[in-house]
Amino acid sequence: MNDPHEAFLTFVANAPQQAQVWKTADEGLHKASALDKKTEELAYLAVLAALRLEGGVPHHTRQAKKYGATREELISAILVGLPAAGYYVTLVLHDALSVYDEAPISEK
Question: Can you list the positions of beta strands (E) in the chain?
């Protein structure tokens, strides 16, 4: 299984106690963050792009848009790692823009 999303779903389904611990830690990190939600989502997208973790890009693109990120901010966030991570960050750009263009603007 090479799909990170499927691997994560397998983790949640087969290790519910560990998944709950991970979820609690994740929620705690979000609460402790000094970043506003939009900035946090954009920063997370930059990390996903740099690490080539494409599976989380659609969800975090929708979240970034929900919290007010512009299309230009999305592009900049994904490309911010270009000098350090190389052209690999561009691998998620098409999918992120497609999701951004299709995602309805939600209430903040």
Answer: none
Instruction: Provide the pLDDT for residue 103.
Output: 65
Cα separation, 79 vs 11, whole angstroms? 30
pLDDT confidence of residue 105? 67
Taking Cα atoms as reference points, which of 61, 60, 55 lies closest to residue 11?
55
User: pLDDT under 70 in the chain at which residues?
Assistant: 1-2, 103, 105-108
The CA distance from 32 to 56, in Å, is: 21
Tokens 């691998």 belong to residue: 91
Whole-structure pTM value: 0.83
DSSP structure class, residue 58: H
Within 10 Å of residue 95's Cβ, how many Cβ atoms? Answer: 13
